[in-house]
Amino acid sequence: MTPPNIHRADIFISGGGIAGQVAACVFAAKGFTVVMADPVPPVTEADLDGSDLRSTAFLRPARELFDACGLWPVLAPHAKPLDQLQVIDTTGWPPVERERRSFRADDMGDDPFGWNLMNWVVRRELWSYLQGQDRITALYGTGFSSIVQRTGEIIVTLDNGDQVRAKLGVAADGKFSPLREAVGIDVTTTRYGQKSLAFTVTHDTPHDNISTEIYNEGGPFTIVPLPDMDGRHASAIVWMNRGPRAVELMKMEVPEFEEVMYHRSTGLLGHMRLEGRRSIWPIMTQTANQLVAGRVAVMAEAAHALPPIGAQGLNTSLNDLIALAGLAETHRGDLGSPEMMQAYEKARKSDIAQRARVIDLFNRVARSGEAALQAVRLAGLKTVHDVTPLRKGVMRAGLGPRG
């Protein structure tokens, strides 16, 4: 019988999605050795089963993080800058526009709000980048199985029998995180009966680097700019609906789907052509009841899953990483110590809770077909935009902490 391999590292990361990949790169750039394990090999092509067809608008703090660890030159060629966020409030069907407001990045400085990339492209580029990093051992096809916590280290057993000995464990393994569950951290979950469709379109009218959220009953229809595809204007779409309607749209024949999509988008970018597959995702708010247990820190969707509103999901995850990596650097000599772990809990718990509450409330108002709540939605849009200090404050809060 072959004895198990023993991997020794400063940090063990459970989860090799975008958050786990970026975490491995950031810790390695700071001089730490990392073992990252994920039971599923990365899907790096759009047309394969399991491909993540969503996109992410990486906001300014994320860009700073990528610059600091050397990732930005890898991602920049695939990114589309976002110069404005446009919000359109509609009512009825076909949707009739009631109000429109634009939030401009130059209100907050010279840089764009963010840069949009397809998730499957990000995973492909990060996977390639990881191969050349000496401080990172990436174990795809091998997942977390169990953990023993000792005073000075953790001993992780993987599902192939191998072991990892490390000072710090990081759970970045999704909503149903096995590492989070193994260390006894519970979650609080709110379900809305909503699902979102994610897909890519090409369209007649240029998007002009403007990201647009169009509100109507069921949730927002979000259009986020992408680089051109074969010389045609392109955008990523996230379309939230009540669950049964989302399933109906998922199964709809393409010509009918494109017709409905045209009406839902108010014809903003002209005719939209579906490019590739549609994917469907459940909408929930889920937060971990604590962020640390012994030498294990919980981050990203293992710590918080949020509705896809305002680009807060993965950017909040990277804000976790900014805090955790900064503390790891400060506590290089006592990595994973109680002092470090308590500081991480303090740094992130309140911000996560506040963002979850705000997005939960916003989603409840945004999806409603009730006249009273639609009036609240309209009044809130006008107030947030038209009062300059409030507008800038909301924009600053949305961007998150600086890297």
Biggest sheet record: 8 strands, mixed
Give the tally of β-strands.
21
**CATH homology superfamily of the domain at 6-73 and 118-189 and 286-389:** FAD/NAD(P)-binding domain
Strand content: 25-35%
Low-confidence stretches: 381-399
Fraction of residues in helix: 25-40%
What is the overall number of helices?
11
**Secondary-structure-derived class:** alpha/beta
Terminal Cα separation, in Å?
A: 48 Å
Mean pLDDT: 88
CATH architecture of the domain at 6-73 and 118-189 and 286-389: 3-Layer(bba) Sandwich
Radius of gyration computed on alpha carbons: 21 Å
What's the CATH class label of the domain at 6-73 and 118-189 and 286-389?
A: Alpha Beta
CATH topology of the domain at 6-73 and 118-189 and 286-389: FAD/NAD(P)-binding domain
Quick one: overall form? globular
Strand order of the largest sheet: 7-6-15-16-17-14-18-21
Write a short abstract of this structure.
This protein is of the alpha/beta class. It has helices spanning 18-29, 60-69, 72-75, 119-130, 178-182, 243-251, 254-264, 313-330, 338-367, 371-386, 388-399; strands at 6-8, 11-14, 34-38, 55-59, 80-82, 84-91, 96-104, 114-118, 136-140, 144-149, 154-158, 163-166, 168-171, 187-203, 210-216, 219-229, 232-242, 272-288, 292-293, 296-298, 304-305. The protein has eleven helices and 21 strands.
Walk me through the structure:
- By secondary structure, this protein is an alpha/beta fold.
- The protein has helices spanning 18-29, 60-69, 72-75, 119-130, 178-182, 243-251, 254-264, 313-330, 338-367, 371-386, 388-399; strands at 6-8, 11-14, 34-38, 55-59, 80-82, 84-91, 96-104, 114-118, 136-140, 144-149, 154-158, 163-166, 168-171, 187-203, 210-216, 219-229, 232-242, 272-288, 292-293, 296-298, 304-305.
- The protein has an eight-stranded mixed beta sheet with strand order 7-6-15-16-17-14-18-21. A six-stranded mixed beta sheet has the order 9-3-2-13-20-19.
- It starts with 5 loop residues before the first strand and ends with a helix.
